[in-house]
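> example.struct
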């Protein structure tokens, strides 16, 4: 396939991606979407297990996480493959890896040595527990990081076991923080000429988005627990039943709640002592949710949406993939794009975010379908072999 013109704010940067599954490769996807040339090193014949992950008869996750990448077959357990990796990394701006700490060192690819050969190199290391500390050598997957970082403990209904998000949020958060660290390190390198290591752990990436969980306990002795679809004391803010589906309404501010009451034909609720203030609504959250739910159940999703728009109440339907692909706002902003695939044809998938006005990112080439399909091309362009 002929690649589209290269663009994006990271155009000209060279990235070597070592690792597999989600955390490291998603970091590579983000950098590639922003214009970097990403060379993915894969075990000959086997490749990344992500090639086979996903739902349905034809796994498609690989088409997303490996877009904008080149596949180079390298046996990192063999001396020849390790030397090829060293040579490529010597030409790179960024190295991404998400092996268990100590693995690179075992293969003779210690980041400290790689940075001696290439002082401008930025090494993004994504792992379960970080590169130091008593747990650093443990195997760690995304779900384990979510549990340790506090996420799993607060997701789900209070009378059931902890639940999961439905997506691999721990992995993607660690990858996103790894990408953010790489961009910060590039700015430092611009000033000093020196690279550095970026240590992004799964559990700390989850911990970073846990809002005030730690100080709430430290200051007030309060431990957050599972609360289902509501935030305690924040009302109304819930998913409510309609005659033909479900609808999310967030009207917990006083002025917004008053507009919701008008939409319900119950303006008196806005001045009712039980609901007139944020604190009062929080104390009567269950009864208020039940009251609103009885009203929404008499309406279709479309009828309720029309009312919420008319009264400027923040609200929205609960989308699935079919809804997204049919929605005009997704289409207008190109939130879903089509990438030409040699086997599947045009494959819809999420676009490139965030959107930059002067140097937007793009999907310039589809995921490599064969392990090592770009080996000869990359070795010739990067190493002159």
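> example.seq
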């Amino acid at each position: 396939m002929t690649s589209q013109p290269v663009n994006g704010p990271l155009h000209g940067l060279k990235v070597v991606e070592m690792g597999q599954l989600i955390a490291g490769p998603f970091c590579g996807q983000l950098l590639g979407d922003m214009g970097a040339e990403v060379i993915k090193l894969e075990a000959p014949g086997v490749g990344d297990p992500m090639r086979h992950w996903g739902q349905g008869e034809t796994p498609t996750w690989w088409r997303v996480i490996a877009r904008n990448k080149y596949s180079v077959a390298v046996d990192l357990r063999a001396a020849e493959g390790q030397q090829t990796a060293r040579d490529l990394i010597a030409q790179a701006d960024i190295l991404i890896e998400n092996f268990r700490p100590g693995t690179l060192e075992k293969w003779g690819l210690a980041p400290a040595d790689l940075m001696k050969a290439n002082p401008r190199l930025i090494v993004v290391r994504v792992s379960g527990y970080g590169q130091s500390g008593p747990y650093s050598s443990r195997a760690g997957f995304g779900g384990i990081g979510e549990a340790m970082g506090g996420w799993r403990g607060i997701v789900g209904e209070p009378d059931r076991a902890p639940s999961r998000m439905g997506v691999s949020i721990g992995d993607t958060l660690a990858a996103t923080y790894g990408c953010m660290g790489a961009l910060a390190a590039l700015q430092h390198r611009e000033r000093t000429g020196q690279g550095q290591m970026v240590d992004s752990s799964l559990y700390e990436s989850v911990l970073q988005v846990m809002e005030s969980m730690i100080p709430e306990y430290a200051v007030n002795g309060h431990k957050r627990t599972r609360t289902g679809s509501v935030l305690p004391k924040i009302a109304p803010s819930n998913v409510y039943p309609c005659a033909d589906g479900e609808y999310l309404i967030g009207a917990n501010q006083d002025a917004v709640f008053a507009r919701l009451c008008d939409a319900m034909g119950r303006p008196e609720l806005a001045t009712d002592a039980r609901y007139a203030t944020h604190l009062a609504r929080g104390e009567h959250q269950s009864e208020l949710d039940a009251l609103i739910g009885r009203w929404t159940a008499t309406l279709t999703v479309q009828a309720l949406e029309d009312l919420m728009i008319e009264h400027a109440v923040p609200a929205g339907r609960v989308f699935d993939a079919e809804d997204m692909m049919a929605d005009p706002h997704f289409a207008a902003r190109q939130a879903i794009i089509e990438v030409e695939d040699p086997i599947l044809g045009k494959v819809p998938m999420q676009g490139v975010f965030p959107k930059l006005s002067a140097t937007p990112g793009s999907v310039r080439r589809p995921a490599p379908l064969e392990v090592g399909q770009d080996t000869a091309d990359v070795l010739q362009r990067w190493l002159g072999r």
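> remarks
The domain at 237-323 is CATH 3.30.1540.10 (formyl-coa transferase, domain 3).
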